Amino acid sequence: MSDFDLIAVDQMARLRADISSSNMDEICSTLSELRYSLDDETFQAKMVPLLEAAEKNLYQLVECFLQNHVALSSQLVLKATMNASYQTLEVILTNRMGYQRAG
């Protein structure tokens, strides 16, 4: 496993924990770190749009909490979308690492 893979696995584990605990500051930080640790152009092409979408959802969720006037159902939808983004990122990362091991 390359250094990149070890870093990415650690960041994905942190992201899972951050999303589970709704720790907004840490989610932002981890998404940012994960984006900038990508070292492969093809991988970046797949991951960066997903990371950007996850960040957009995160900022919308933070705004909902700050304004406190958006229905709880909307907040739950945004959190579910973030979880789906995380799961998609995890699948791509897992597939990439499996492909590298096979190659």
TrEMBL record:
Protein name, UniProt field: Uncharacterized protein
Organism of this sequence: Penicillium concentricum
Highest taxon of the lineage: Eukaryota
